[in-house]
Specification:
The structure holds two protein chains of two kinds. By secondary structure, chain A is mainly alpha-helical. Among the domains of chain A are: about 80 residues, Four Helix Bundle (Hemerythrin (Met), subunit A); about 40 residues. Chain A is built from six helices and no strands. Chain B is mostly helical. Chain B folds into two domains: about 50 residues; about 290 residues, no CATH class. Chain B has a two-stranded antiparallel ribbon. In chain B, strand 1 and strand 2 form a beta hairpin. In chain B, helix 2 packs across helix 11 and helix 9 packs antiparallel against helix 13. The chains are: A mainly alpha, B mainly alpha. At the A-B interface, helix 2 and helix 3 of A face helix 5, helix 6, helix 7 and helix 13 of B.
Amino acid sequence: MLFPFLIIACLTLASAAVAMMLRNLIHSALLLVLSWAGIAAFYLWAGAEFIAFAQILVYVGAISMVVLFAVLLTRPSRDVDLPLPAPTVLRIASGLMAAAMVASVLLTAVLATRITGGRSHAPNLTVKDLGALLAGPHAASLLVVGVILTVALLGAIIIAAPAPAERPEDQP
Amino acid sequence: MSAALPLSAASGANALLERLPVVLRDGLLGYLPESLRWIVSGLITIAALLAVFGLLFAYLTLAERKLLGRIQNRPGPNRTGWFGLLQPFADAVKALTKEDIVPREADAVLHYLAPVVLVALSLMGFAVLPFGRLLVPVELDSAVLYFFAAGAATELAVFMAGWASRNKYSLLAAMRALAQLISYELPLLLSFVPVIMLAGTLSTTEIVTAQGGWTLGFLPHWHVLTPWGFAGFVIFMIAALAESNRSPFDLPEAESELIAGHLTEYSGFKYALFFMAEYFGMCALSGMAVTLFLGGWQAPCAFLEFIPSYAWFGAKLLALLFGFIWIRATLPRLRMDQLTRLAWKFLVPLALINLGTAAFWFLTAGWSGPLQLVRWAVAVALVVVPFLLLGRRLTAGVAPRTYRYAT
């Protein structure tokens, strides 16, 4: 049971690490996709089928597209390597600080979780149960997430909106 | 494959034909030691799927060329074998013997991986389709989600192909493919949510079971025969056309603008693999449409149940594939802005309204007698009125198009 977990963990971490080291952004993005797929594999290993497929659908299917689009649209040249200025104290410090903040958030989350001992069976949740959970006890957080996403979307549209089109070929 | 579902009221002859594939497999497994059976059983399923859909792919290309020829008033391939029946095999030999060219500037690894990933991902969808009463390769609780998760990653492979080729046409095609996927993923996913709402499950087997039975002995309870199901089916098929890069949504490989799009720098067998993936994807999405909306392997009438369930599934699948080919021969390609406009301004709002229609249908399930008529009228109005209003508003000033011919 532990062996598949080790393989999945190594694959996920290795692809994420290589994605960080590469200077080719597209390669990094594709490796990041592989790492997301690894996380989905981990969910599958843990018996959470629904969340595994949702992870693939959202991350591999949608978010990867947004990342690739952002890379392709923002880079003026597709020459392979990005120039990398020499590291300064400020950059090292800010990098370390960001890493420490993420690590502290994750660690508190992990430590705050009470892990009930013993092998428990995976709960037999149907989609209906998941829906009832989301619409019942967690309705408030769902609404907050929805509002935040809507605001972000509206902001993105306002920032990205061009002037009204005048050209005849833009008409339907 | 599981044999969990019992045969309902099937007669003896039906049961034999129905069980035949499972009996054959079990007979073969009988010769093997117990410890090997589970893996060989899986391998047999994979081999059967590959053989059936490989052959279907081969003859679908021929059928497409023949039908396109017929529609365009020309014979189509007719030189190899009788009526061109050996044409797919001649094509296969040609693809295998052609030189495989990788551009010098190309990203060799991604260029190689793209077709492989594409075919692998497009094959994965077949695993959860219930091909017959007893023929479900893998039973998953969230099978529908699995199917679309596997399908969502295919456009990533198209992007890899386009980007790795280091060709401006390929790169443009990759960008178009991404834009198309982002636009059409949403209506595709929204269009089948009503089915899951009404069936209350994500399992393909249970969705098909939920569509069993007949009203008055001849009206099947398929989802497509309800107002929300019909709207969902049409939206699903339009989005499926776009997802499988088929005409009129084949912008990533628009040959009049982009040479062959992301296929420009591919040759030989890799080129054939792209086509294979396109047809596999088309078959898988059609199979999903059959499962979700057209009653899966259910027979259309009670007295036709003597025909085995997998034959019904095949017949419905072939009918949808014929529709795909017909559409390709009929409709001109859309422009990029029209493509995204159709998805975001038309299909997504209609799919969202369709959720409301389905909710209404679900809440009024207890209505009977004259109230049943009210239920139908309200549901039909909920589908038709937004369609007409939205369509009129979006096409105001440009449709119907008038054509002037030279005199």
